[in-house]
Input
Amino acid sequence: MSVLVFVEASEGKFKKSAFEAATYGVKVGTLLGVETHALCIDEAAESELKSLGDYGISKVWYVNDSRLRNFDPLVYAKVITQAEAQTNADVLVLIQSYSGKAIAPVLAAKLRAGLVSGAIDLPVLEGNSFLVKKNVFSGKAFATYEMHSAKKIISLMSNSIAPEKKPIDATVAAFKPELEDSDFRVTVKEVVKASGTISLSDAEIVVSGGRGLKGPENWGMVEEMAGILGAATACSRPVADIHWRPHTEHVGQTGVAIRPNLYIAIGISGAIQHLAGVNGSKVMVVINKDPEAPFFKAADYGIVGDAFEVVPKLNEAFRKFKAGN
Amino acid sequence: MKILVCISKTPDTTSKISFTDNNSKFNSDKVQFIINPYDEWYALVRAIEMKEQAGATVTIMNVGSADCDAIIRKALAIGGDDAVRIDAEPDDAFFVADQVAQFSKSEQYDIIMLGKETIDYNGSQVGGMIAGLLDIPFVSLASKMDIAGNIASLERDISGGRELLTVQTPFVISASKGMAEARIPNMRGIMAARTKPIKVLPPFPSEKLTSVKKYDLPKEKAGPRMINADQPEELVALLHNEAKVI
Ligand SMILES: Cc1cc2nc3c(=O)[nH]c(=O)nc-3n(C[C@H](O)[C@H](O)[C@H](O)COP(=O)(O)OP(=O)(O)OC[C@H]3O[C@@H](n4cnc5c(N)ncnc54)[C@H](O)[C@@H]3O)c2cc1C
Ligand SMILES: Nc1ncnc2c1ncn2[C@@H]1O[C@H](COP(=O)(O)O)[C@@H](O)[C@H]1O
Output
């Protein structure tokens, strides 16, 4: 028995979420009294692969097959099921990223394994029950799922667990999946890398603007704040709909759902559909000129004032703070 | 071309969420139910557009009890041709996917379309499971789809960017924003929907791999700490010292 963690790398480096998944997997392994292995399909150097040992992963399997450079959930799931058989894993852990979201259910079907997607906490064993908690109703409630199948798959929401060091000397081993040419049924024409330096769903800090900012020409101060804080930028839906900002920035129920450590909302009213995508944030700051704006009810910190006066001053204060730290 | 569009019933986004039976059941009292927005706005409307452009039959699929008939009628009013409802409680994603997979085996659909996730259980599971069970390609989180003959060109979100791809039918897609614009059913559609058939079938043998044991509501926030607009340094200090997020 073991726990197998599927980790994603980008340009040869693990993302923070890979270390979160590793930490999660190692803790599940400890809970069940088994080893935790990791599997990486993306390109990464041996030293990078070995760094998973810092988080307690005992063996890192990597796949070096150029046919897998393009993402296809069915093919990836086939590779992972073969690794699952080799490592005799009963629990599989993935990150609920765009890719993880697509692979996990295919895997679940192939293995007839129960899946909890978007888990936010470690599993709990209660007698014979294996319980996993996740957000439901777009962040308005939590549900604790019981998993009935022998094999279990958990896809973890990023930013739910802090990476924790538990160094051991990990072995790195090649894993050679058996794939036929007929497995590759999708032809990838092009991969367009996300623009912007920090992707919204991975960002720890997000600065977001709404219709209160009056026009796209006023986003300079929002981008400035994001630049100072190393944050990603986001917006409310009407702002994307009227093309002030790209659609990829739209957060909320119909846009991207995010869970950063800090969400700063400027000139956004706080409609329930907007909150649905952001209320998993750890800390929320709301800047709005209307003291009755519904967003204040969900906020941790609030400033009532005109964004065009408040934001430049706040940027100044952030800049001073950064200079002194 | 035969398209199957899977729709599910979810509480309207403005619903107040509460639970009964010692927090083990969702309280549907006074809750207004709608078609899951991703299923309606993106999957269904794109299917109808393809029918208008290239000719296709669009079948609506739902796993649920008789109280789903209202959303099925709405989907037919928007332009679905006929509907199938598998009469069972849809309380486990694998079970739902297995129903759709077993049903569609004999029907040979070219494209099975779903929403990217339900806004109640936020699973993003059923589509990938159907693809896995039928062993056909899965284009997850697709924001664009065009088809010529039996070759479809699609765009999908992947970690770190977007993938532009082509795939041959049959395949499964889960639709996200960008796929189509929402449509409101017109009077003619609503009248026509009344006579369109909804076939009700008993469930296929399958199993449920998960169940919800209990629900919780998040703790109410104490209310925000208000900071004077003239003292932004105070906010910066609080974010650093108290919240520890910068
Ligand atoms: C089914 C459905 C799904 C939806 N999905 C989403 C979604 O995913 N994401 C989303 O965001 N919305 C979504 N919406 C829309 C949502 O209901 C709101 O309409 C939207 O979030 C409002 O955007 P806003 O706050 O930017 O604009 P407004 O509601 O117009 O609010 C602007 C705010 O700015 C403040 N303001 C104005 N001037 C200033 C100033 N100078 N300084 C400071 N503050 C100022 C105002 O007081 C006001 O609170 C959805 C709606 C529906 C029906
Ligand atoms: N009971 C159901 N009947 C038919 N389709 C469903 C059902 N539940 C979910 N779906 C489809 O599967 C998609 C993903 O659902 P989920 O995996 O629950 O997030 C939805 O957007 C629907 O298209």
About this structure: Chain A touches chain B through 99 residues (CB under 8 Å). The first helix of chain A runs from residue 16 to 32.
